[in-house]
What does this fold into?
Amino acid sequence: MKSDFLKVSTEKGVGRIRLHRPEVLNALNRQMVADLVEQLESWDRDEHIGAILLLGGPKAFAAGADIEEMAQATAVEMLRLDPFVDWDRIRKISKPIVAAVQGYALGGGCELALACDLILASESAQFGQPEINIGVMPGAGGTQRLTRAVGKARAMEMVLTGKPITAQEAFQAHLINRVVPEEALEEEATKLAEELASKPPVALRLAKQAVSKAAEVGLTEGLDYEQKLFYFLFSTEDQKEGMQAFSEKRRPTFRGK
Ligand code: HXC
It folds into this structure.
C-alpha cells in the first residue's frame, strides 16, 4: 500500500509501519489514520503476517490528532466526518500489534499506543492527554482505555490537567510493558514482534481476543468466552502439533491450521 504518511515493510512474519510526518511530530491527520487502518486490515487477512509493529520517529511517536485539520470544524461537520469510525476498526484487528514509543505520545498519539496490545517505550517517551489545554477532551479511548489501564486516580489527573507522564511513570502505572534504552527500542520491539509472529497463529489470535474481552465484560461472561475459545483450539492442527512436539521433545512447526 502506498501512503504519504506511513513507511511500510515486512520481514520475518512482521508487518512494520512507521508513522512518518516528522515535520509536525507525526500529527495524525484523517488520511494517515485511514491509511494506517487499511494497512492493518490488509495484514490481518495476510497469512504471511503474524504480528504488527507500529513505530513513530525519534522525537515523537505521535503528538496527537492534527489540530490544524480540526481547528475550524463545527460539531455537525465532526459528526458527519465521524473520524472515530476508522479508530474503531483498529479494535477489530485480530493480530497482535506492538507499539514502540519514543518521544511524545500525546492525545491521539497516546490513544493510538493504547489501542495496541503491547507497548514498549524508550526512556524519552512521554504519555499524555493534553486535549483539555486546547478546549476539548480525549475522543479515541483516552478516557476509557487509559482509565482501565492506570485506574481512575491517575487517568483523572492526566485527563484533567493535561500533564504528561514519563516512560518510567507509565511503566509503574501499568500503562506500558517495558522501558528500554533509547538505542535498544527498535531492536527490542522487533524481537518481541518476531517472537509473537512465530507463535501458532490461531491460538495467538484467539488469546488476544480473550484478553481484550476482559476489559469489556464481567467475569462470568469473560470466563465462558475464554472456555469456548480454549475448546475451539482443539480443532486446530497446531494444537495437535504443539502437544505432540512437546511429548517428542522437539520444536513444533505451526501452520496456522
Ligand atoms: C498539528 C502539530 C501537532 C498537532 C505538533 N505540531 N503537534 N500540528 N497537530 N497535534 C506541529 C507544530 O505546530 C509545529 O509545526 C511542529 O509540529 C513542531 O512542533 P513544536 O510545537 O514546534 O515542537 P515543540 O516545541 O518541541 O513542542 C512539542 C509538543 C507540541 C509539546 C508536542 O508540539 C504540542 O503541544 N503539540 C500538540 C499536542 C496536543 O495538544 N495533542 C492533542 C491534539 S488533540 P510548525 O509548522 O510550527 O513547525 C487530539 C484529539 C484526539 O489528539 C482525538 C482522536 C482523533
